[in-house]
Hints:
By secondary structure, the chain is mainly alpha-helical. The protein has two domains: 13-162 and 263-343, no CATH class; 181-243, no CATH class. Helix content is 66%, strand content 2%. It has helices spanning 3-7, 10-15, 19-46, 51-56, 60-68, 80-94, 101-121, 133-156, 165-175, 181-207, 212-220, 222-237, 264-295, 302-318, and strands at 75-77, 325-327.
Amino acid sequence: xxxxxxxxxxxxxxxxxxxxxxxxxxxxxxxxxxxxxxxxxxxxxxxxxxxxxxxxxxxxxxxxxxxxxxxxxxxxxxxxxxxxxxxxxxxxxxxxxxxxxxxxxxxxxxxxxxxxxxxxxxxxxxxxxxxxxxxxxxxxxxxxxxxxxxxxxxxxxxxxxxxxxxxxxxxxxxxxxxxxxxxxxxxxxxxxxxxxxxxxxxxxxxxxxxxxxxxxxxxxxxxxxxxxxxxxxxxxxxxxxxxxxxxxxxxxxxxxxxxxxxxxxxxxxxxxxxxxxxxxxxxxxxxxxxxxxxxxxxxxxxxxxxxxxxxxxxxxxxxxxxxxxxxxxxxxxxxxxxxxxxx
Length: 343
């Protein structure tokens, strides 16, 4: 392999990039962008950050990973586990009032990116083979339970909170009399709709005369219809006056590039959470990347993935975003950027 391609894997796929691939990328990019906007807002709010921070973390990092990452089936962006870990870390640091949650999150992204990139240049990708998959899976499962319970307060429209399973359950029960039925019906309706589409959507769309490919495509973008329907319902019925919370105003314009705060005190408080976020995100993304790459006879370079994910996190930090981890988005296959293909 040429040294230039080793340092910049994008040079390999750029040689064979043609108009057909661009057309597929453009279609997939439009779909993923529509899906990514509400998802990024939600993950930023889950992390206890302003909603626009999630959008900032979904712009520049994607372009950087396309240049430095080795996988054509993965993309970068905020994910639930990283957002939950970010919330715990920045909440504790900002409790004293000396630093804002946004500044702490940006520094956390910079530390995580720097660690991952350094591990990649030191060729430490092999260490992922020694991490227990059982432990990582247990951590992810436990995090998913905590995340689900923490989001029930939004579905119920109550002011519950807590950091542990016991605290969350106790707080939810204590605030249950404050239940907002408008919020509950919206949340429960969306969840039911998504479950039905996931279970029977493809078959239903095929009975309407669509091909299997287009039926699968339509079922995958079903959350977009849910978002549009709830926006229309809240706006037309004036549900905000009934206590239904809305995201509110989002600052316009692109994020400004800026240096993160790397003061000694802040680095000392955040280096351990940054290390944990880096390890969990890297192990999860490599395991998914290897599984999906095997289906396409694609080899994942563990060291290059460290560099790709590290540079993406650094890009997120310099553009005002939160830590990024990799996910396989909406069952779309990708080819740096994202290429939609029939299945």
